[in-house]
Amino acid sequence: MTTLKIDAQRSASVPARLRILRDPRLPIVVTAALLVVMYAYGSYRYSFDQQVPANLLINNSYLIVAAVGATFVILTGGIDLSIGSLVGFSTVLTGLLVTRHDWPVAVAAVVVLVAGAVGGLLMGCMIQYFRVPPFIATLAGLFLFRGLSLMLSKESIPINDKTVASIAQFHVPLPGGAFLSVGATVALVVVAVAVVVLHYTRFGRRVYAIGGNEQSALLMGLPVARTKVTVYALSGFCSALSGLVFVLYIQSGDPRAAIGLELDAIAAVVIGGTLLTGGFGYVLGSLLGVLVIGLIKTIISDEGTLSSWWIKIGTGALLLLFILLQRAVASRRT
Amino acid sequence: MTATLTRIRQRDWRRLSRHQLFWPLLILAALLLFNLPFTPNFFSIGVRNGHLYGSLVSILYFGTVPILVALGMTLVIATGGIDLSVGAVMAISGAIACRLISHATDQNSVSLVFTAMALALLAALAAGLFNGLMVARAGVQPIVATLILMVAGRGIAQLITSGFILTELSRPYAVVGGYAAAVPTGLFIVVGFVAITAVLTRRTALGLLVESVGGNAEASRLAGVRAQRIKLMVYVFCALCAGVAGLWNSSSLGGADANNAGLWIELDAILAVVIGGTPLTGGRFSIGGTVVGALILQTLKTTIFTIGIPAQANMVFEAVVVIVICLLQSTDFRRRVGRLVRLPRPPRQRQAPPGELADAGHGPAIASVSQESVEATS
Hints:
The complex is a heterodimer of chains A (334) and B (378). Chain A is mostly helical. Chain A has helices spanning 2-10, 16-21, 26-46, 51-59, 61-75, 83-100, 105-129, 134-152, 162-169, 182-200, 202-212, 214-219, 224-250, 261-271, 283-303, 309-333, and strands at 157-158, 171-173, 179-181, 252-253. Chain A has one domain (2-333): ABC transporter involved in vitamin B12 uptake, BtuC, CATH 1.10.3470. A two-stranded antiparallel sheet of chain A has the order 1-4. A two-stranded antiparallel ribbon of chain A has the order 2-3. In chain A, helix 5 (61-75) packs antiparallel against helix 13 (224-250), helix 6 runs parallel beside helix 8 (134-152) and helix 11 (202-212) packs across helix 13 (224-250). Chain A is globular. With 378 residues, chain B is mostly helical. Chain B is 69% helix and 4% strand. Chain B contains 16 helices and six strands. Chain B starts with a helix and ends with a helix. In chain B, 45% of the residues are buried. At the A-B interface, helix 8, helix 14 and helix 16 of A face helix 6, helix 12, helix 14 and helix 15 of B.
């Protein structure tokens, strides 16, 4: 604590090495470093092969897609609790359309994506036009979509469609003998698109501006209402896409799939260095956050003797570490 | 003559409908009456097996957990915070109590039960202290600070129960979640907690301090309020409420389930608080409103069950009702709908929606504004 205060006092004439400590990007660097250290420890202890990093992407692909949507919402200073329910709803809807009604997979996928986007749009309208707090509006969405998926089907629907199976088993080869699944490729593409949208489009600048100060953004003449509603629609779209990726992963439509996924997504976003007050953060940080959580799961399951609840405790401890780190950085900035 | 009468009636109606508890109580009454055609003996209370029995009793019985947790949540929300960890705290407190009782040789020892409960509540207080320190001292956003314990807390509870569902057969412990003198014990706990909280916040300056911190923490600090200490207190109190709710829950089930105890209760509690008229932005709170809000949610669940809506439609029905309630309470929504339908408002000359004081420079608007301000002061 004392060093912290001294740093603050010296801030007028800080040398370059201290300027690094005050950089808001520090949490992301720490996350990246942590990922490298954990990976090094894991590969030393369990002799990871080149497929391990690829599997990390494959096993967490749906979470990556969901976390990208959550990043947009959190950047505007909002929150989306309906992610897990929407993912579950999307898997059931896909299963229903493809298996029970024999729709072509592509058409079913488009319908699911549109349904997700419309769901997000409706929540965004409730938030923007009726001033329902984001927490409450998306909470209602959480109940609604979980309930709808249970109404569509009480049981898990196995998907035996040939197209789905072939997409799920398709391997995208990587140099060095490793491979990616289609889901992981989709996740990487989504991250890339999100980076471009956030940093190289007007829409992206507006998202940051609203998160920084909504009132100022409004006074600057930015279309705040449209942008905010779009962001929630985007999150709904990402959740639906995450549901499609999840379908490839489990090859069934499960109304109880992805319960609590929104918490994992929010945790990943926070670990990735995005401020929950909005206005600052990177999509790549969220990707790193997902990978850190995924690596904890991999190491704990490889350890074998550790019970599953250590995953939760470990994730909580990491959250604590990163939040305190963010606080330290933020307090030095002011 | 009739004109003045209707005017008085309109004014009374308006004053009544502005009361904090008006909408929540109306919704609760409507929900209760809604049950009558489906369950003709809905309001009857009988005695069975030596304790009270009936739909209303079961609403109160199962209302224990939501009311208790929502009570603590009200104060937290009044300071502008939020506590997501209540479900995990419930799981921890239940797990500790059941672990201690189930491992003892004599499960029926009263002193053992009291020790177990005390230790469980101590753990809950520690959890609250952690949340409070994170929010008040470290200055972390409440939603993030309590997210930590929400994620890790369930892991800790599983650690305590070693991943099993612990069952206990202690008779004294069963009283907590059972019946005392024919009345649900939970009712005594709830009434006690609500009464103490109401007295402490409304008969002392404590409630005012909580509201001032919620209104503007920095300003109240400059005015000499120990904002940090108030914040710390409300999180500890909230965790205590959750701890007691966890004890009640595990006692009524006869065991601790670290995975499912208090699952999603934070969402129910926050909803109850919001339905009760406490804004999520803080600065204002209504304990009576919260109790009514929690009762609305519990009645809704009982209603869904008794009128025979299929189990899988439960959540959709609940979601729709919640959305309707939230929209009804949204002033923007009422204003927009009022503009479309012209609800039972007194006829006015002006076309602009009410509440927009910006155009108050015109005759009729001034009249209505001054009338309202007179009502507010009287």
